[in-house]
Amino acid sequence: MSMSDAELAAHLAETAGRILLEVRASGVFSPQALGKAGDQTANQFLVHAIHAARPDDGLLSEEMKCDGDRLGKSRVWIVDPVDGTREYGESRQDWAVHVGLAINGVATVGAVALPGAGLVLRSDRPQPVPAPADPLRMLVSRTRPATEAVMVAERLGATLVPMGSAGAKAMAVVRGEADIYLHSGGQYEWDSAAPVAVALAHGLHCSRIDGSPLVYNQEDVYLPDLLICPKPLAAQVLDLVNEAKPA
């Protein structure tokens, strides 16, 4: 059975999520060892499955050494087998599986599985995003809240919502559980490619924190910051980020 790119992304994310739940349910790993075992097991599945289903496409995975082959391709799958390894190891729900497809550097197709919640959010099945709350809710890292995000939240009078993985945070905005995801503490392409594809499909604003586009399949895969929020909030948040930067 042939699948569209979006169907393939969702199927692989969901299947990898099920595998990860099985690994965790085995009960044989410590929390630290569980994260490594889950990462490696899910990565093996995703890498083999993408190579089998889309042999001509490039592939970038957090858990796979990059040989540079992807740089010559216009279609590149970007995956994070376990986004939020710590949360996965601690048996929390705020971790995710990312399967995204960048076409000519743009995060175009994506699926983010939230296995702990039994959900897969996908770029080909957008739902209406609920209106922002009052006061606004801003997502921050549960372990390392970014300075800019805290400062912007104060200026907006926003409530801080600590959460684990980048994918879980981005999907909280998509689902209307929070309103703004502002991150400036360092990330890589696999942290945001699939979530950004899903968020864009849902009509949300996605950019770097200086307002420039998020560009994928670069030689240097460090992509340190992003903003995901409803479009009517974007200009105000970007202005406040600029004001919050140290002189």
TrEMBL record:
Requisite cofactors: Mg(2+)
What the entry lists under InterPro entries is as follows:
CysQ/Inositol_MonoPase, Inositol_monophosphatase-like
Class of the enzyme per the UniProt entry, highest EC level? hydrolase
Name the GO terms of the biological process aspect: 3'-phosphoadenosine 5'-phosphosulfate metabolic process; sulfate assimilation
- Example GO molecular function term? metal ion binding
Out of the domains of life, which is the source?
Answer: Bacteria
Where along this sequence does the record place binding of Mg(2+)?
62, 80, 83, 191
EC number(s) of the enzyme? 3.1.3.11, 3.1.3.25, 3.1.3.7
Keyword Kinase belongs to the record: no
Pfam families for this protein: Inositol_P
Q: Which UniProt keywords apply?
A: Hydrolase, Magnesium, Metal-binding
Q: Which PANTHER family match?
A: 3'(2'),5'-BISPHOSPHATE NUCLEOTIDASE 1
Protein name from the UniProt record: 3'-phosphoadenosine 5'-phosphate phosphatase
Q: Which organism is it from?
A: Sphingomonas dokdonensis
